[in-house]
Design a protein that fits this description.
It is a single chain. By secondary structure, this protein is of the alpha+beta class. It is built from eleven helices and 33 strands. The strands form seven sheets. A six-stranded antiparallel sheet has the order 4-5-6-11-9-10. A six-stranded antiparallel sheet has the order 12-13-17-8-7-16. A hairpin with a 2-residue loop joins strand 14 (190-194) and strand 15 (197-200). The longest helix has 20 residues, at 320-339. The radius of gyration is 28 Å and the shape is flat.
């Protein structure tokens, strides 16, 4: 059971939907307070207001009395709710507006655009599924105080500014979008709950609520409307994964397909009988599959039935470092499968990041295509946004395998060395990379106690120090080592060495900032990259390339 707890309010750059993921879920309330669901705290949070008490509960897992998806939440309100519901053309019941000063608005949780999924008495474990407007209206009339509702947060920003036209009044000088009953129009408007499907409000049913008197001031949320519209414009280029659209994929070549996760046995049938796929390379974890309600065992059995080899190798979603360390092994798996003449479906949960990153890295490392060309090719054919810096990091890690720590080419990384201690008005940087400690680099003052010096360096291990007002100092905020003479110097290791089975460990804390440099490789670097990538591929073992499920630890 997960209970919602308030975290400190923060600035909102853009409206965020409730996004699924991991063992916790979070979303933005309409007053811009971040609500976080924490598995370490059980039970309910009772939030008391002048108008009464609201109970909020988010749950996941089989131990919960109410089965809910990760983007759903349960809220209990005293009546009248202060919610005006609307019905979409496809039958969904959505929150259209909130009454100013009503219980729903005071809860600071319910947002316009949320879909009503269930309602009833949660104290008696009785929540009825809302299938149509009649169900919703009956429960609103019959249920006595309090009323519990399961609502679903949209996966993409909700265009509140389109909900009413043309009359908008200003609430004082706040700029909040408000309107009165007389300003409502029956036409409704388009919603963006699904970017591939425009949903229209049902004009015949219009609006309904649990209150007989609908007069009063209603609003679409307590936020400046103009800022919300600007935030929507900024978010247009972003991608939102919609699990309800089922498996989506694109053919990259005769042997490679890339796409989102396999959800059903029917998806397996499509891959096998329609596309002729003979192997699946899956980067989704078992926990992710469970969170999305995917029957992983049934999928594996269907793959065996259709003579498809399923190989699962988990990469943590959104973890650039995990991607960087595991990518060489993933490309090795893909290379081995292609050498066995398999037709492969490369997949992860959304299909936006891990799976296309593997295909791009394969093209870069194994076919001598530049990273820029490979990235442009895949993103041009398939809508995705893979972690390009992670691929560049992994590229230099592979090259380091052959060089064994001695890179003699141009710089591979840009390092910002940071001095952030109390003392010092004149700060310079010296080290192995400053003419053997003889040519100090001036650090620039960035405000407060912070000084920075940026240096582009080839990957490797370097010792350095700061000269502060004429005195040699080492930074206590970065790793340090004592040399044979007893002197303490800061040390930085830039880059890493790829391995067949990497161990992903937490990196030591360091005030310095290291960024990878993506540049065209010279002939020697391309040769080293191809050699290292194939070394990893031919050491991928033990993988039996037969039509059965393989889980690589």
């Amino acid at each position: 059971m997960l209970s919602l707890q308030f975290i400190a309010p923060g600035a909102l750059d853009r409206p965020l939907p409730l996004l699924p993921g991991g063992n916790s879920s979070s979303f933005w309330a309409k007053d811009r307070c971040l609500l976080k669901a924490s598995p370490s705290i059980a039970g309910r949070n009772n939030l008391r207001f002048n108008g009464g008490t609201v109970r909020v509960l988010a749950m996941s897992g089989d131990s919960s009395a109410f089965k809910m998806n990760l983007n759903e939440y349960l809220v209990t309100l005293e009546k009248p709710l202060g919610i005006r519901f609307a019905v979409t053309a496809n039958g969904k019941i959505i929150v259209h507006s909130l009454k100013k000063g009503g219980n729903a608005e005071k809860s600071r949780i319910i947002m316009v655009g949320d879909t009503l999924k269930k309602a009833g008495d949660s104290s008696q474990n009785r929540l009825a599924e809302i299938k149509n407007v009649e169900d919703a209206q009956n429960i609103l009339k019959e249920q006595t105080n309090p009323l519990s509702m399961v609502l679903e947060r949209p996966r993409s920003p909700f265009p509140i500014h389109l909900l009413h036209k043309p009359s908008v009044e200003s609430s004082g000088n706040s700029g909040f979008s408000t309107f009165n009953e007389k300003f409502l129009t029956p036409k409704g408007s388009e919603l963006l709950g699904n970017p591939n499907e425009h949903v229209i409000l049902n004009e015949e049913i219009k609006f309904f609520s649990d209150e007989e008197n609908n007069e009063g001031e209603w609003a679409h949320g307590s936020f400046p409307l103009e800022e919300y519209v600007k935030a929507l414009d900024r978010s247009k280029g972003e991608m939102y994964y919609d699990h309800s659209l089922s498996m989506r994929y694109t053919k990259i070549s005769e042997q490679i397909y890339v796409g989102s996760c396999i959800q059903t046995e029917a998806d397996v049938e499509t891959l096998s009988k329609v596309e002729g796929v003979t192997a699946v390379l899956n980067f989704q974890s078992a926990t992710e599959a469970e969170n999305w309600g995917i029957d992983f065992r049934a999928i594996n059995e269907s793959c065996q039935k259709n003579n498809i080899l399923m190989i699962s190798y988990s990469i943590r979603a959104g973890d650039s470092y995990d991607m960087r360390k595991k990518l060489p092994f993933c490309v090795g798996l893909l290379f081995r499968l292609l050498r066995k003449s398999h037709r492969i479906f490369v997949t992860c949960t959304s299909g936006f990041d891990r799976s296309p990153a593997c295909v791009i890295a394969y093209l870069h490392w194994m076919t001598d295509l530049s990273l820029h060309a490979a990235y442009t090719w895949i993103t041009g054919m398939y809508t995705c946004r893979p972690d390009r810096p992670a691929i560049a990091w992994a590229t230099w890690d592979l090259i380091a395998m052959v060089e064994k720590g001695n890179h003699d080419g141009p710089p591979t990384h840009a390092v910002t060395f940071v001095w952030n201690d109390n003392e010092g008005k004149d700060v310079t940087l010296v080290g192995d990379f400053t003419g053997n400690w003889k040519e100090p680099i001036k650090a620039m003052h960035k405000g407060g106690m912070r000084y920075e010096a940026e240096v582009k360096l080839p990957q490797g291990k370097y010792y350095y120090k700061f000269i502060v007002d004429g005195n040699w100092r080492h930074s206590t905020a970065s790793p340090a080592e004592r040399d044979d003479s007893g002197n303490v110097n800061n040390v930085i290791v830039i880059g890493d060495t790829a391995s067949v089975m990497p161990s992903v460990q937490h990196q030591p804390k360091d005030a310095n900032v290291v960024k990878v440099i993506e540049r065209p490789l010279d002939e020697k670097e391309r040769f080293k990259l191809a050699k290292a990538a194939r070394c990893i591929a031919f050491n991928v073992c033990p993988i039996t390339l037969t039509p059965k499920s393989q889980v690589v630890a």
